[in-house]
Design a protein that fits this description.
single chain; 140 residues; alpha/beta; Rossmann fold; four-stranded parallel β-sheet; methyltransferase; BUD23 rRNA methyltransferase and ribosome maturation factor
Length: 140
C-alpha cells in the first residue's frame, strides 16, 4: 500500500489499489465518510442548482457511493461511474440509490453532452498531471 500522505495512483494504476479490502476500509473510515459528505455538500453549493426541483447528476469516480448518498438525501437523482468493480460492488452492497456504471473516465464518458444537470468529481489536482487532454474533435 502507498505510504501515508501519498495517493495510491502514484505507485500504480488505481485498479490495483481500489480492491475489496480497500473498499471495506473506505466504508469503515468515519473520517472518509465525513469528508465525502462535506465535499458533496460543497459541490452542490458550487453547482448552484435550482432549489425547487430535483436534478440529474453525474458522479465521476463514485467509488462506494458515499457522495451519491448525499445527493440522494438532497432529493437529486444520480449516476455514478467508477473504474473499480470492487468499489462499485461495495456501493451495491450498501444499496446506493444511484445507477452505477463500470468505466474509466480517461477513456471517455458514455453520455451525450447535456445529459446531466451537473457533475461532481473529487480528486487531488496532481492526479490530472498524468491525464491526456481530449478535445471534442477527438471524442469519437
Amino acid at each position: 500500500m502507498a505510504s501515508r500522505g501519498h495517493r495510491p495512483e502514484h505507485g500504480g494504476p488505481p485498479e490495483l489499489f481500489y480492491n475489496k479490502n480497500e473498499a471495506r476500509k473506505y466504508m469503515r473510515n468515519s473520517r472518509m465518510i465525513d469528508v465525502q459528505t462535506k465535499m458533496a455538500g460543497r459541490a452542490l453549493e458550487l453547482l448552484d442548482l435550482p432549489e425547487d426541483k430535483p436534478c440529474f447528476l453525474l458522479d465521476v469516480g463514485c467509488g462506494t457511493g458515499l457522495s451519491g448518498d448525499y445527493l440522494s438525501d438532497e432529493g437529486h437523482y444520480w449516476v455514478g461511474i467508477d473504474i473499480s468493480p470492487d468499489m462499485l460492488d461495495a456501493a451495491l452492497d450498501r444499496e446506493a440509490q444511484g445507477d452505477l456504471l463500470l468505466g474509466d473516465m480517461g477513456q471517455g464518458i458514455p453520455f451525450k453532452p447535456g445529459s446531466f444537470d451537473g457533475c461532481i468529481r473529487f480528486v487531488e489536482p496532481e492526479l490530472f498531471c498524468s491525464c491526456t487532454l481530449r478535445t471534442p474533435s477527438s471524442w469519437s
